[in-house]
Design brief:
With about 130 residues, this protein is mostly beta strands. It is built from 1 helix and 9 strands; from the N terminus they run ββαβββββββ. The chain has a single domain, classed as Umud Fragment, subunit A. It is globular and about 55 Å long.
């Protein structure tokens, strides 16, 4: 899907003079997805990641080819169920944390049936 791209940026502070110059078109797939073969989109449900800007109903673009690092937002499989959490890595210890104080963190140990599906790279949500 290609959408019109304007040459000038939009000011998020004081407005600048209007400019009607078009730059061309932008392919949203190329802008949002770096590795199409390893990328999928999943819909968020719930409010455990509100402080990360992830709201219930948002679309999460997830890349399975990226290795998780400390503070990455990940899609994790816990006992076969997918969830979105922030991974905290300290040495060889891992923790999946919510970005909402009303939700508990998930500790990962050797007996846990948990694995990382992929890294959230983009979030798409409505602003109205």
């Amino acid at each position: 899907m290609k959408v019109t791209l304007y040459l000038n940026s939009v000011c998020a502070g004081f407005p600048s003079p209007a400019n009607d110059y078009l730059e061309g078109e932008i392919d949203l797939n190329k802008y949002l997805i770096k590795n199409p073969l390893a990328t999928f989109i999943v819909k968020a449900q719930g409010n455990c990641m509100l402080q990360a800007g992830i709201h219930s109903g948002d679309l999460l673009i997830v890349d399975r080819s990226i290795k998780p690092k400390n503070n990455s937002i990940v899609i994790a499989s816990i006992d076969g169920d997918l969830t979105v959490k922030r991974i905290k890595i300290s040495g060889k210890k891992f923790l999946l944390s919510s970005d909402n104080k009303d939700y508990e963190n998930v500790k990962i140990n050797n007996e846990s049936d948990i694995f990382i599906w992929g890294i959230v790279t983009k979030v798409i949500h409505n602003v109205y």
